[in-house]
Amino acid sequence: MSSPFALGEALAARAREGLLRTRQSGNGGAGTRLQVAGRDYLNFSSNDYLGLAGHPALALAFKEGLDRYGAGSGASPLVTGYSHAHQALEEQIADWLGLEAVLLFNCGFSANQAVLKALLGKEHLLWQDRLNHASLQEAGSLLPCTMKRFGHNDMAQLAAQLEPGRGLIVSEGVFSMDGDQGPWSELARLAEQSRNWLMIDDAHGLGVLGAEGRGTLHEQGVAAWRVQIQMGTFGKALGVAGAFVGGSRELVDYMVNFARPYVYSTHMPAAQAHAVLRAVELVRGGSESRERLRQLIGRFREGGRQLGWSLGMSATPIQPLLVGASEAATRLSSRLREEGIWVSAIRPPTVPQGKARLRITLSAAHSEQQIDKLLDTLGEAKSHV
Ligand SMILES: *Cc1c(COP(=O)(O)O)cnc(C)c1O
C-alpha cells in the first residue's frame, strides 16, 4: 500500500551513506562493564562520569523513594504531581548552585525546548553556538524567532551578530561531542554589554567541574547571577535521569505558567527526585572522585598523544579521538569492539562532515588498567585505520 511518508526511501538513503543508526540492547550500562549479545565489554561510551549510575547508595535512595512515594507521581506538577521530594530537590539544587529558584523536568531535551519556546516570540533573536545540542538547535529552528548561529566559541562573530536588548544567547558549559568548554566570562561580558540574556546548558559540566561539582561557571569563576538561565541534567554525572532549569524566582514563576512541556506533562516520579537528591549529596562530597577522574583523563591524554592519535582540546571526561571519514571511524569502533571495548563512533549529522570521531568518555569508576587496555588496543588499531 502506498503511504504519504517515504520511510523506506529515507532509511535506504541513510544506509547507502553508511549512516544508518541501529540499537543494541545491553544490561543497562551502569558501571564500567557492558554486556551486549552475550559478550562482555569495557564501556567507554557512557556519560556516567562519576560512576554513580550503579552506586549502591543511589539504588537504596531510589528504593526508599519508592517505599515512601510509590512508583508514579500520578499527575502533572500543577495538578497533584508536585511532591515534597520534588520541592526538596529544587531547593537543594538552588542552594548548590547559588540560584534563587529551580524547576524540574523529565529530561534535558524537553527542558531546553520548554525554555526557548516559553521565552522567544517572533520579535526576538536567539544566538546559538554552532555546536549546541540538538535539543537547542531544533527548538531554535522551529520557533518564530530569528536564530543566528555563531562559529564554535567564536566570540568575535557573536559580538558582530548581537543587537542590543533583543533576546537570548545560548551556549554550553562543556560541549558534548568535543569536551571543550564555552568561554563564559566573555559570553557574560558580551551579554551584559548588549543587554541580552544568557543561558547555559551545563549537562556535561555539572558534577564534574568546579568545587563541589558546581559546574562550568564555578570552574571559570563566573558568578551565577550573570547567567539568567541555567540548565543541567541528572542523567550524566548525577547518574539518574531528569533535568532542571534555574535562575530567578520570576523566571521559574514564568515557566510554571508558560512552559507547556512542564505544565502538560506527568511529573517525574517522586522516587526519582528522592534518588537525585541523594545523587546531589554524593556529587557535592565527591571531590576524591573528581580528582581521580582528572588523573585518569591525564593518563589517557598522555598515552593517546604518545600513540600519535589526534585528540581534541578537552580537559574533561569527553575525549574525542578525531578520525575524519565516517567509514574510518566505524572501522575503528568495530575493531575495538572485537577486542572487547565499547566506544561509539560519532558520525555526521551528529558532527560536521569530515569530523567523524570516536567519542571516548572516561569515568572515575574506570581503573588505571582499564585505561591502559584502551590505549594498548588503540595502539594496535592505529595501523589499520
Ligand atoms: C544529554 C544532553 C541534553 C539532553 O538531556 P537529557 O536529559 O538526556 O534529555 C541536553 N543538552 C546537552 C548538552 C546534553 O548533552
Automatic annotation (TrEMBL):
The modification N6-(pyridoxal phosphate)lysine is found at K236. Its cofactor is pyridoxal 5'-phosphate. Gene3D superfamilies: Aspartate Aminotransferase, domain 1, Type I PLP-dependent aspartate aminotransferase-like (Major domain). Its EC number is 2.3.1.47. One of its GO terms (biological process) is biotin biosynthetic process. InterPro entries: Aminotrans_II_pyridoxalP_BS (IPR001917), Aminotransferase_I/II_large (IPR004839), AON_synthase_class-II (IPR050087), AONS_Archaea/Proteobacteria (IPR004723), AONS_Proteobacteria (IPR022834), PyrdxlP-dep_Trfase (IPR015424), PyrdxlP-dep_Trfase_major (IPR015421), PyrdxlP-dep_Trfase_small (IPR015422). It holds the Pfam family Aminotran_1_2. GO terms for molecular function: 8-amino-7-oxononanoate synthase activity; pyridoxal phosphate binding. Keywords: Biotin biosynthesis, Pyridoxal phosphate, Transferase. Homodimer. Catalyzes the decarboxylative condensation of pimeloyl-[acyl-carrier protein] and L-alanine to produce 8-amino-7-oxononanoate (AON), [acyl-carrier protein], and carbon dioxide. Belongs to the class-II pyridoxal-phosphate-dependent aminotransferase family. BioF subfamily. This is 8-amino-7-oxononanoate synthase. The lineage of its organism: Bacteria, Pseudomonadati, Pseudomonadota, Gammaproteobacteria, Aeromonadales.
